[in-house]
Amino acid sequence: MPPTDATLTPAIASLLQKRLLFFVGKGGVGKTTVAVSTALAFARYGKKTLLIEFDENTRAARLLGLLPQEHNHREPRSFSPSLSVLSTGGAVALEEYLRLIIPVKPLLRAIVESRAYQYFVAAAPGLKELLTMGKVWYEERKRDPQTQQPLWDILLVDLPATGHSLQYLQMPHAAHEAFGGVAGYEAERILSLLRDGEKTAINFVTTADELAVSETHDAYQQVVQELRLPMGALFVNRLHHAPLSAQAIEALQVKASPSSTERRVVEQILKCGHEEATLAEAEAVRLRPLTALPLPMIRLPFSPVAEFNVATVEELSRVVIPLPVENTMDAPDKRKKTRPVAQRHP
Amino acid sequence: MREKKSQTDLASIIAAHRVVVCVGSGGVGKTTTAASLAVWGALSGRKTAVVTIDPTKRLADCFGIDPTSTQGKPVPPETFRAYGVSPQGTLTALLIDQPSAWDAAIARYAPTEEVRDRILANRFYQGLSRTFAGSHEYIALDTLASLVQQGTYDLIVVDTPPTRQALDFLEAPQRLQRFLDSRARKWFLRPAGGWNIFSAMNKTTAFLLRKIEEATGISALAEISDFFTTMQGMFDDFGERFQRVSALLASEETAFVLVSTLEEEVLTEATQFLTELDRLEIVLKAAIFNRTHEEPSIQISAEKVETSLIEQLTRAVSPSMVNSIDPDWLVRNFFAHQALAEGEATRFAEFTKKLSPTTPFVRVPLLPAFPGDFGGLVSLCSYLFPVAKGQEPPRKNKGKASRAVARTSSGSQ
What we know:
The complex is a heterodimer. Chain A is built from 13 helices and eight strands. In chain A, a hairpin with a 2-residue loop joins strand 3 (77-80) and strand 4. An eight-stranded mixed sheet of chain A has the order 3-4-2-5-1-6-7-8, with helices on both faces. In chain A, helix 7 packs across helix 9 (181-194) and helix 10 packs parallel to helix 12 (261-291). Chain A is α/β, with parallel strands linked by helices. In chain B, strand 5, helix 14 (264-279) and strand 6 (284-292) form a beta-alpha-beta unit. The termini of chain B are close together. Chain B has a seven-stranded parallel sheet, sandwiched between helices. Chain B is α/β, with parallel strands linked by helices. In chain B, helix 2 (30-43) crosses helix 18 (374-384), helix 9 packs antiparallel against helix 13 and helix 14 (264-279) runs parallel beside helix 17 (327-354). The interface between A and B is large, with 89 and 88 residues.
């Protein structure tokens, strides 16, 4: 049951109109967390969602508690009726591709296991990226055999760390220019999907870390200006928040008698508060270069939990799209120390 | 805690090695840590170079890195003095800019200008050097090889590229060698007149490869073939060089230092690092954990006491301030911090069990207002190389930074 649109921010409402969302970001900023949280939120909102992750990265599947699976046979796996996860990669995509051309199994095995093939794959870099993007294209085109409706309402792609993700995004363009044959044709089709602003949006994920901010800035220039791909939103992850300023906390005078337990407790509490406020203030300063970009900002809080798990991403998904009004009573306070019980798709 | 272990500490590890390679996942502060280790090297009298890949602009500026050149110049002593320290040695930062470093390497090895230009114009080469995964590692190692060969520096700190396949960096030489190995090459070499990619193979393979070729487009293969043909003769140099780097990395002169945080995902990757290092028979010499949260000195376990804590807090500050402090938030924040620190403590204990008992490790606390400049690197040294008991770490900055310093020293006493 989709909640009323009043719960949507304009940025999220606009993303929900698309078919294909990419997530680009520096390694370590929590890109997978953001992609998974957004996928959970969209699925709960009622969209039939496919989350795709690349290469050996199976973090999204792990975060959602899906078991590791066979290397060879990778099909979308369902986490819930409205959310499926696909872990795919260059090697897998290439083999799938070859299976279409060479349906004879022993022959296929012979080629894949030959040293010549290994060399070919190694020597033709970019092929992996192109074919992986081809797989994304293929999933976007999938139709339900009966209704002829698209199988997925929306696809979210968790790309590898920035440098490498830009390779994925630019490969169709490069291949279109460099390759002939089927690959060139393939590249052209992928490219037209990528450039379609009605369907596709490239989203950036960052934290308020200085390096992440500058890398995001560069990635933005490259994606929007050089590759001319349509942009989505900027997700800022792990933001600290404090209703008090560090200065105000520092100015507090503690009355309790020195060396009393009470004083030590109070000082400890104030120290933690001071640290949080200092972090929040430092982050605001470091984020400034990004506020100038014409991207809507979606802020996600730092999750101060002992253990990061599916409950944590569920909680973050409620920041992306808050629960419908009738359920907000049990929506946990995002600052609360107790971890909420995971609620799957109410 | 083992930070104060007697036999080895981080300082003696750095002192005993010529090459220090920082490995770890992206986003853990590897570049900053490597830079700080190099600052320490210069402070302790060594001719130090730090090979860095992706510094922040601020860091590059304070190192005097010229982005248009791969030749570094030493950080002037005034920069050190501005932060109250004076270097006994020198510090030079070298930036690896992938494409231009590759072009420079080609220019170095190409026998003639014609060959050089031909390679530089080859699209396969351009792709390899500019876009494709793995080339970062090759060129980082090439730079390292040059530095070692030059013999100008007696300490070289290497910041490895951020990569999920953690030790790609290490295996790059072997992979490149395999890639360039003569048997592979002959498939791609074009003899006078025509390109014979299929002639060296049996018929089945040839048939199958032709199928792949149909799928990918022949022009790619032609470019590759041309690249290998033009590069002929230059491989031996490359191969030899990388063999030397491989030997250097495996030698006693090199120390691998893990940089990590105590976050779950990061430690999972760090554990994979350990396994891979083991497999490559490399001993991890030290571990550095950044951005750690200390457990509060007072444990308040029951969450029931929240109300009484709020009351306590309200009582404890002067009445005029009560209205402005938001005690609810302060108490909630305290519990959040405590939960975080507890999780970290558990993971820390578990992870350090996996390290060899002689491997020193250092915990660097989260520095809320860490200045990403040269002063920040100098202050980071005091956490990485804590001074003996009784001495206070240097207090460089008034206010927030010194507050954090005070916290560490009080925490460890």
